[in-house]
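Hi X.,

You mentioned you wanted examples for the new student's onboarding notes, showing what a folding record looks like when two proteins sit in one file. Here is a clean example. The first protein comes first, with its sequence line followed by its structure tokens.
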Amino acid sequence: MALKQVQELKQTQRLSPLQMQVIKMIELNTVEMEDRVKQEISDNPALEESDELPSSSDSDDIQSNENIEGELSQEEFALGDYYSEDDIPDYHPYVQGDNKLAPAEYRYVDTSTLNESLQEQIGLRRLDDSKRTIAEYIIGNLDENGYLLRDIQSIAEDILFQQGIEVSSLEMEDILYTIQELDPPGVGARDLQECLLLQLQRLEPSPNVKLAEKILSDDYEAFIYKHYDKIIRRLEITTDDLRDAISLIVSLNPKPGSSLDNSMEVSMNDITPDFIVESYNNEVTLYLNNRNIPELRINRSFTEMMEGYNKNKESMKSEDKQAMLFMKQKVDSAKWFIDAIKQRQNTLYQTMKSIIEIQYEFFITGDETTLKPMILKDVAELTGFDISTISRVSNSKYVQTNNGVYPLKFFFSEAMQNSAGEDVSSREIKVILKESIESEESSKPLTDEQLTTILNEKGYKIARRTVAKYREQLNIPVARLRKKI
């Protein structure tokens, strides 16, 4: 079949450069957006920070409508895009029951890593150059928790290949034992059992310590599966002896490396909220957290130069035309970027406003049981945005409320029906499930069947497999593993 060219007329829908920028920006959280703005200012000379202080819009709070319970009046949210330096709240949860922020907690954080600490300690040991090189190589293979998860023989082969040092497995074991003598206790262990035993060996000898070592050495499998009756019969001990030994074992650190590598953990736990929602006297105020995102404008020198070029178009040289074209491209890009930021702010604001309208009672009371069933489609219908846009907004965004900082995904949940046929949030069921487990008798924890019966008696139609799914989502183990003596 011969190839031929054919003209065809059809309509297609494509995203404009501005729309593509907005879509990408919506996915960014506040911290990522700050970096994006800084990068754009650095790349585009036509873009600069505005020296003028932005004027904040008038604040109109949302108040509950006395005539329609659970709905909002027609008054608008307060869009506080900008704060003065004195008005900016610290990013810590509010004290419950108080409208003021809790004072910031200052603490010292050791910035030295586990690897650096161990390298420094091994340098103080009397080792020859060959053994020190091997020890440093083993330390480099420890994970962030301080465990050596690689096989000794594999590490020995790597040392031979990379360092040209031949070392036997027995010599590797000896050097590993030297590393296990370093701080923090338990570092260099190859599994949890060895980690706990290493920590017990650092404690002062006592009957309780010896019993804990014997349990971990001889009955470790029975211990982790909480077969306490087997341990009591095999070791011929009392329940009180076993309880004291278990209390000692539980007090040990299963992740010794985390005690030093806490600087990264602290930084990961520092969440910058994208929204701030304040509630006081049944009034809710919404702010976009844009304090570190500067006001942008077109560079004035670029504008003046373009005006000069426009006045002298006829006498313009080819080099000047190229400069003019370059400036025009940069100015257009700057305008697109500024408009994209405005659209992003509006999209985020409208989305959060709709979430508050649906979950208004939660923002007033802070009670999770008041959360209503809500899916992406519900918010999309209120805002008029596409479901994919709502999904992008809710992903990796956080809101600070009077009761703490929550991810936006926290407010989305599927609907369940109670005995009265009313729709309730699955999160409400999870709260009751968690409360039931917390109040259970520790020696006789509730099984999934018993939990199902409790929920059914409370009016929630739910199957056992659903209870098991919710329990797993709450990171709660099965009844056998929750058993305590």
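Then the second protein repeats the pattern, sequence line and then tokens:
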Amino acid sequence: MPAKIKKLTRQNLHGVWSALIVPWTDRDELDPRRFEREVRSYGGTGVHGVYTGGTTGEYYAQDDATYERITRIACEQAHDVGLPIQIGATALSTRTANQRIRVALKAGADAIQIALPFWLELKDDEVKRFVKEIAAEAGATPIILYLTSRSKRKLTPALLGEIAAAVPTFIGTKDTGSDLKQVRAMLRAAPDIAIFGGEDFHERIPAGGRGGYCSITGFNARKVVELYELCAAGRMREAAPLAASIRRFLYEALVPMVKDEGLWDSAVDRIQRVAGGGDVGLRCQSPYRSGSQRHVKQVLAWCRKNTPELLPGQGSKNPASRGASS
């Protein structure tokens, strides 16, 4: 029997969370069996949970029926391997977001992860209204705000504090755009909110950060977990070489494919996941560009030469399976 999933709260939300990639068929339809395997593959790796509904999972390219199938499969399979799951419900209006939240609740989501509506930039009062309305729809299920530049605006620490005080089920943020000074300011305004970064989480933990929502878990989840465990234990000097390797891999092997070849994050995430052994395919939803096997070989060759300690299969010596029991 899988471990019982603990309710996520401001106090216990922490660790390494991995984005789920959706495998598509050659007709741009969900491949359910491969997606089941993708979700289950994170069981036993030590990650603290998985999530859907961001750029990596191409939520923006999903119709309602596809979204519902993805959500149902993700919740079933994650829970079966003992992992909590956050379901993304980002949309362009409160009404549409609430429709997706209802789907997520029916499927058994442990939390709702959501960005602000982004076609028109929200004013402060609209931000507060949005969060209150989606929280009302979600009920007791907690909310994680995805604070991204794609939402066209940044929340000030004061506004974040107001929302945290007004909405008790708002428990954390996925925030990949704030520096350490801003992180500290946000935590002064909302001391118990769980603030997550991306692959830079090792820098944020000493400032009060709780962990990372990391795409590189797709390449080698155990290594990312190893870095988190060192940082969480305060062993920053020991963590430094591994953090440097992950940073090099990100900025020297992956980012150039965005800057030099025009691939979007979703394509690069697939490339590294396939290089890491995942059966998710390289195909992105049209009209966005997909990577190729050339890119996969390029990533592996770079890693062998420069950061061989990150190669798939090079995990921590004693990986602790986290999931719901952590």
